[in-house]
Fold these 2 entries.
Entry 1:
Amino acid sequence: MSDSYRIGIDIGGTFTDAVVMDENTGDFRPVKVSSTPDDPSRAFMEAYTRGLDNQGLTARQVGFVVHGTTVATNTIIQQKGARIGLIASEGFSDLFEIAWQIRPNLYDLDYDKPPPLVPRHLCIGVPERIDAHGEVLVPLDEAAVYRAARKLAEDGVEAILVCFLHAYRDPAHERRAAGIIREACPGLPVCVSSDVCPEYREYTRASTTAVNAALLPAVGAYVERLEDRLGAVNPGSGLFLMTSGGGIIASGTARQQPVQLIESGPAAGVIAASYVGRLAGYENLIALDIGGTTAKAALIENGRPRLAAEFEVGDAAVATTTRDKGQGYPVKTPVIDLVEIGSGGGSIGHVDPGGALAVGPQSAGAAPGPACYGKGGSEPTLTDANLVLDRLDPGYFLGGELRLDRSLAELAIDRRIAGPLNMAVEEAAAGLIEIANANMTGILQLVSVQKGVDPRAFVLVAFGGAGPLHAAALAKALHIRTVLVPPSPGVTTALGLLVTDLRHDYVRTYISKTDDLDLPALTAIYREFEDHATGLLLSEGVSRDNVRFVREADMRYLGQSYELRVPVARLSESLPGKMNDAFFAAHRRQYGFATRDEPTEIVNARLSAVGAVPRPSRRQVPKGGPSSRTALKAKRDVRMPGSTEPAPTSIYDRYRLQANNRFTGPAIVEEIDSTTLVPPDCTVTVDDYGNLLIDVD
Amino acid sequence: MSDRSSQLTMDPITFEVMKNALLNATEEMAYTIRRTAYSTNIKTRADFSCAFFDASFRVVAQSFSQPPHLSSMKTAIPNALREYGAENLDPGDGLVLNDPHRGSSHLNDIALIAPVFAGKTRIGYLANMAHHVDVGGSTPSSLGVNREIYQEGIIIPPTKIMRRGEIDNDVLGLILENVRAPHETGGDLRAQMGANLVGAIRIAELMDRYDVGQVEAFFDELLDYTERWARREIAALPAGVYKAEGYRDNNGFDDEPVKIAVAVQLRDGSARLDVTGSAPQQTGPLNATRSNTLAAIAVVIKSLIDPRILVNDGLYRCMDVIGPDNTVLTATWPAAVVGAWELAQLTAELTLTSLRDALPDRIPACGKAIICNLGFAGNDPRKEAYYCYMETVGGGNGARPAKDGPDAIQTTIHNTENAPVEEVEINYPIRFARYGLIPDSGGAGRFRGGLGIRRDFEFPDCDTIFTVLSDGTRFPPWGLRGGGDGRTARFILDPDGNAERLPSKVSITVPKGGRVSVQTPGGGGFGHPLEREPDAVVRDVRDGKVSHRTASETYGVIYDAATWSVAHEATLAQRERLERSSTR
């Protein structure tokens, strides 16, 4: 018998999901409890306790807990971050007021910038200046720093950040300033830009540092509360948090670097997709997570999710395109490159004034919810459309916990769409779904074709409550051949928390023409990173054998501003040539063209330090024959994508399916937390791990 | 809302899918340019635009855009295709052009056109236009005070620069030999050509899914749909003729103010901008072509109608610029035109202001109303090479009828980002001495105008040719409904010493070690300052955006500086006093 379990707990807006996994067998059991937004740690502990009770386990049997949280994002979006003060180079303390100086939408006469992260009266410039070449032009005025810190403390700030020009190049002034601030204001947290984000471009660096400082008190207290509560029941267990980049960090590190946690939840879903995909034998995947209000997509190549270096947090966490820039606050930390749109089960359909049909981004949310919930919602949602087409069973939604009312769904669709457009209710419902599918196809394209990747060679991993309902149609649109639906798709994200490694990313701006590369200098940077990372990982409980490093560099053509990341092989004379080759190939792949005649430069040295966490190998589900008859629970008429009439459709019970079972569409597979739609001409095979593999071709 | 007459004739679902596919294609072009370009103005400041035209040369889809590019492309691209002969373009070919007198705005904006084929059928054209740091001519960054277009830089008629996917190095070489930053310009042109290749692939993918007839029907449908929606929205604006006039500093040669007069005609779902009464075409760079002026009305109307309406030929069918040729807003060959955007900024503000009584809840006070083109050039001793850099600077937005104007932002037709201080200092022999808001520069009002920006430059390494091609130093951004004016622009040599005021159009050599200060205008205020919420005034004082003196003498607000709280009785008394003295 195993005494060793790990628990993943993912807190979302409506539900807190937990997965308790047996480390020997890889078996896991899901738990869903209502979230408690006023104090998320209550739902956290409830999920923890129920997860143990369900299996008759004691806290002592838990090795470690991994947590995915939206607490950091919500703190920023709801503007509940700490009151913070800025100390900057004199003459340059207005960077938060100016930001990018643009409007995300040129035609919006009512646009306002997001409120500055630090109000202007808490931004103080002090005499000091280092130039672009690292030369000190004006020495640090230490007395001015002391006065500024005292003034900010008197104004009641809860943390201070320091951002001096070119501190990525020489952090001496920032470090000295931090020392003076600690002297002046003992106990007040201090963040310096050269620690949090040692890269050039001052606004982005300052913004990242400010977000970290603004999160420190709240997130720090939250994590501490979790540590205390867990410590009370099981003093020995470790607590880790998922970062935006899909790694995990110890709770103590997270308290210092809360800016790492912003995309914690969405990242876990992508990690889970790569895990279930790899077990099933697929390394090139597109993760598709469709929930109640949003759909998210991400690309996984060779088993690794794509990472981006920068994003914005604010009204909406936006991806890394030029579009919509300026709606939030830039954050430069590794982040799983995912795209999110307001298109989920609760998204509302409407007719726009030009006479076209549109879906979202408005959502009926959890309250009042879709019309068919009967909780007062009157707007037609995607869930209503799926119900009207009989794709959902009104009596088996959330396993029967919520009874859906088909007539309310019909009424809403008729009033808002079918009536105005003079079409049948079923046509309108099918249209709503097709348009939502087109929008979701758009995000799948953004993460694939727009990145120069052909989606046809990829497997679509569909999860989230609504993912398996739409996935087959989306796969068809993009000519993707295979859809993979993992067991319990509704808690896939929580599973992802348990199957990743500890990870720390290091970066430093180091600008040099590739051909003139100073190899010893570059080696020294990587060595320094590695020494620091080793110390940190050991302190987090990783054994030395499990520490791995990945050296990379950001490169570009001399003159460009955006870099591409290339691997850095063993440092030798041939390294510049190898790096150039890798860069040319990456440029051609990403943008469709590349020339070997133009000089290149290296901009940043990067290191990812990984503390490997052993992955349990999952136990396989019972094997059966090709016949799926024992899992067949009903037949009903369902209107499938692309057809105009309902057709008799087999309804399968997911829990009774066995490995090797095969069946063809039209079919529907029901389980408590999700419904999988199998269109006609598609064949489903159940694999050894209970995944549904839908052959869409 | 139901309106049977407004229905699509096409299946609304296919319609939506195709629309998104097309928009994604132009967005991806924009992404490619930004990520691969070399010059700061394009890669960091995003001074470029992308569009798709159908086989009848109608603009069907556009990316994120700088509006004068789009209105220029709408005219210049069809003109180029007609002149060169669209039938002379094969797959993989590309045209380059920049001649403002063939329908665009100024020589710095270089456009690249590529045909798109589905099999053998010519389905349309991709085009993109980007502002290049230098196109030669009398002055670095091509921002000089000149008499005619020939002095402004190299003039490129529609010329084939790509043949079957390969760059014609003769043509590229000829262009690069005539510009001051050939490394950057070469990189930028490759980025523009790469973007068209990417866009062509995406559109070909769309063609894979549908047949040519279906796609052509879609283009018609999309443009009709846009036009129908836009006309209905414009018709819902109060019909009438609305006028406003204002002045620019001068034409760069003499010191006479240059008059801009606009009359906006809203009738039957169309919007026309009549420029009759504006000053005649100038000898100097302050001239705008008719297609450049179109951007002003297009931006204003687009801002006033449903934001979901797309910018394409359907929208442009609803608007035009009328009035005689050879005014300052309808300049023709051989006018010098590099100052065109300075005119478009004021024209757009005047167009908005003309509607102040028709749409009292929507029209803001005047914003900074300049582009503020700045050029820098010299011999960079570190790189042992000639360098050339240009940028523009944001300023105050006009206050709105129900809220303050944003500080430090780009306004109306213009939306380019700032270049990070560190990025500029790494790449060029330029050092910044300060970069911040200008207190008290926003017009006072019940709602305050946005603050202008002060950006001071120092040249530590070499003598530097510093060029300003701007305006706004004489006539301030105006307030509305009792709101005060914003502060004017100032360009100052040696700001911490002699502080010599420079004119708004000038090119000077600043000796090594010298400094210049660029100070952009604040926006006008809206409503009377004595009606401003006293708390908002105190907040502004605490934030250093409004001075103590302005608070008490203009806003009539008295406060306790220790607690930052309003002294209500003293404020009441002060406001009464100010009211009495103003009515006396």
Entry 2:
Amino acid sequence: MSTRDKVSIIGAGNVGATAAYYIAEKVIADIVMVDVEAGMTRAKALDFLHAGPMRGYDVPIVGTSDYAQIAGSNVVVITAGIPRKPGMDRMDLLKVNAEIVKQAARAITDYAPNAVVIVVSNPLDIMCHVALRATGLALRRVIGMAGILDATRFRYFVAEHLGCALASVHAMVLGGHGDQMVPMPRLTTVGGVPITDLMDAATVARLVDRTRKGGAEIVALLKTGSAYYAPAASVAEMVEAVITDRKHLAPCAAYLRGEYGIDDLFIGVPLVLGHNGVEKIVELELAEDERQQLLASAAAVRKGVEELNTFFRPT
Amino acid sequence: MKRIGIIGSGNVGTNTAFFIAENRTAHVTLVDCKEGVAGGKSLDLMEAGPVREYSTSIRGSHRLDEIAGSDIVIIAAGRVRKPGERREDLYRDNSANVRGIAAEIRRLAPKAVVINIVEPIDLITLLVQETLGIDRARVLGVGGLLSSTRIRYLVSQALGVSPREVTGLVIGPHHPSMVFLRDSIRVSGIPAATLLGEARLSELIEEARSAGDTILQLAQRSTSYYAPSAAAATLVDAIVRDTRALLPVSVRCEGEYGVRGIAIGVPAYVGAQGVVRILEIKLTEPERTAFERATAELHAAHKQIAAPAV
């Protein structure tokens, strides 16, 4: 097996392809994009390679529809899925995407059983369950991309409001990747100073609300389509943490077994990302209202998982 | 592209030029009074450019005139501290030279933002500001940022996490009496005390407080210079790109934190004009007490050195 690190991305739509681009720029791994549309995927890979001489990355980038190409990957990212179409109800979408994710997950079992799997397809927390069940991978090797994205949006909104450097702002967001996510203002800081000391409560509330609706704000502007730069950048951040064993403490969706009083559920919590995937789940002491919000968010995710179970027998 | 003048091509001055080049931030002119030294080091750095892929220029000279028109001037010309040396004694040796340099900066680069890395940081930073007679926001000393990066490193090592998400602010003099703001020491927003325990965090703070001495003892003949140079390059980046990063710097206070008339380490947003704004954070009672004691000592040292020689 090659000694070079390898990242595969299943689904070469906007999120998948842009993630491939960000990862290429980091020059940390060979890249494979897999998509049912073979020509489009090959074209995107070739286009990226043509830009390499100027951008200074020199990693191989392959575009293919053949799952066998993911063999030996250290990390596999599942971005495949369809956006909701007009007239489609939530459950229809869930079923279609669950099928797609299940197929991708089985390919990972077949070709890259030692990979760390990063799930991006929506509804995120539920698709993590589908991926975990279909792969039969170790629990700590399946991680959902959500908290880093929600936190990067929160960080941007704080920096924009204060007119300070993005790099000085750190943020924490817990819970499911949806309206019921739990942004944590007391753990969101400028250089370590909580934003609750830097702005009034009404402003904090406004930024929290904008964070919760961050994805929807982009959808409303684009009309046809959803965000992909920030999601792809979040994927690249996670991939880098795994490949380089960076031990990056950040919020991601992980499978909980009793942590935070939540069992048998994927939900966003702070964790340490490294070579083995989830290296450690960090259990924060929560205030009562924060705990209630997290449990409410968990209940919403659990409802989705149970709905899905009525259509799919767990494998 | 902005131009940076660095005065002093010792380890700190040269490595600052090195980090600026690697950041691809700006063109650098490195000046040293010893003929040939700055020229040699600049040439060495430029010859590394093709493989390191930077294309900014680094020029060396022994003539201070070469910094004329610089956007930022970094003062790194002074001797380093000896083990156990009092800041008053070090000041006596470094101040005369720096006073002359500051007068030249006023003539050659009157619009520059000036960064001081000469020790004792706070006293020399004040001397530079007074000699230049410019807006206090435009004279910054590298002090707290260095201690900040050290506590961030130590916390990341103790927890086995990446240092990039670790924050930590330090205020007060660049001296063992500096005050670490415990609540600001966090990982991705999570207070380090909750992850490490209060006792372990206290140990790491003491380690960071004496980190400069530790390096001096290990390296014997030289003081640390990579971390100080990196701190200076970070300030340069914030100024050149006007990022308004929140960084602890030594700057002359006029009422902030109850301090007046001396330069001391405080958290500040740093941008194109130097200090954009000093951020006043509520201190805990022990922090307030420690800060006031350290400030009083610095005032006393300032008074002593300012007194005419007998």
